[in-house]
Design goal:
Low-confidence stretches: none
Shape: elongated
Largest sheet: 4 strands, antiparallel
Helix content: 55-70%
Radius of gyration: 21 Å
Number of helices: 5
Distance between the termini: 51 Å
Strand content: 15-25%
Length: 184
């Protein structure tokens, strides 16, 4: 029973760390990256649809992305969704078959803003991991009547170590993203 609670907490924390890494990838750095466009939703026939389902994304140059829609009728909607995306500052150009998105060079001030944004996302992820820890600790406390005090204390220490490891993983991903952002 204790092992189940710890395994569940570990799996949920793993997913929280992966979600944080995916969230970090959506913040743009100096280079164009197709992952920047993962969270863009396009109004496709009245339905918000992820851009990755409507088009292929290629990265021919450092600051240029080419979006090739599977359905040419979605060109205008894709172009509008990219233009409306905050924190991207992209200016898409439509040639009738594909969309070229050139990302402007980041200024030092803009890089610092993105570092703040990434730190905020990192803190949110750590809060989520700590929330998982809190719920798992409550689940362990509910098992007090079935198990001895020593077993529960040992399980809480394991839970704390698990939480510390996942928070450290988020911090490590955060450091890498900050270094990437501040690299000119």
């Amino acid at each position: 029973m204790i092992a189940d609670v710890l395994a569940d907490a570990g799996a949920r924390m793993d997913r929280a760390v992966e979600a944080a890494k995916e969230d970090f990838a959506t913040v743009r750095t100096g280079r164009a990256n197709p992952q920047l466009f993962q969270k863009i939703l396009v109004d496709y026939y009245g339905t918000p649809t992820p851009l990755a389902q409507l088009a292929s994304l290629n990265n021919p140059e450092a600051r240029t992305l080419v979006v090739t829609p599977y359905d040419k009728s979605a060109l205008k909607a894709i172009e509008q969704a990219i233009r409306d995306q905050p924190n991207l500052g992209a200016n898409p150009t439509n040639d009738g078959n594909l969309i070229r998105v050139t990302l402007p060079e980041l200024t030092e001030e803009r890089r610092r803003e993105f570092v703040k944004l990434v730190r905020s996302k990192g803190e949110d992820a750590k809060v989520h991991v700590r929330g998982i820890r809190r719920k798992s600790k409550d689940d362990l406390d509910d098992l007090k009547s079935e198990f001895g005090e020593d077993e529960l204390t040992r399980a809480e220490k394991e839970l704390d170590a698990l939480t510390r490891a996942h928070v450290d993983a988020i911090d490590e991903a955060l450091k890498r993203k900050e270094a990437e952002l501040l690299e000119v």
